[in-house]
User: Which sequence fits this backbone?
């Protein structure tokens, strides 16, 4: 995959970048059901803990999760506002509004 | 930005990766208004044409655009279905359904 993102740090860039990986999306799916400790989140994945923690850092940099320490545990929490911001960006372009407006125009003309 | 995506090629990975860059998002915004030639799309950007064409390739790999040759021009077209797929993925986790259900439960209990 070509890396043309080097050096960019826009919150929207970092958010979409964080979503571009199956492990990170699985973490989001899990956190949808509630907060969880980093070690607990890591369990289902067949990877070294430091590698998994890097994924959490990418999610944090992307604004998709926040973390806090509780004793020796690092608790992760889903940040739905950033998800809403990212889907909001996509939603503006997903629908063919021009096509819809053309069809509405045609309907009005037929009705005249 | 940590590159933990090396080697992955899931269509959803490639789609979100394509969205993680301001140039590529600007191309999507432009194509929202209709098809356009690659050279025409490149004009507003202060970058070498080969660099810009790499961005188009990332968009194409991500399923967000398709391109076709018309004489010497390469025409680009927005693929809204992939945008819908990506926002669909996000939308499933964006809302706090558990919180909403808890609040609904509380409302019913108050009404009893």
Assistant:
């Amino acid at each position: 995959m070509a890396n043309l993102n080097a050096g960019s740090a826009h919150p929207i860039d970092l958010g979409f970048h964080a979503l571009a990986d199956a492990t990170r999306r699985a973490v989001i799916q899990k956190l949808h059901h509630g907060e969880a400790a980093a070690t607990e989140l890591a369990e289902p994945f067949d990877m070294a803990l430091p590698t998994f923690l890097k994924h959490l850092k990418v999610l944090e940099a992307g604004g998709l999760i926040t973390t806090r320490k509780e004793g020796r545990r690092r608790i992760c929490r889903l940040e739905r506002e950033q998800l809403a911001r990212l889907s909001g960006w996509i939603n503006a372009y997903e629908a063919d509004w021009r096509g819809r407006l053309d069809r509405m125009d045609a309907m009005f003309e037929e009705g005249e």
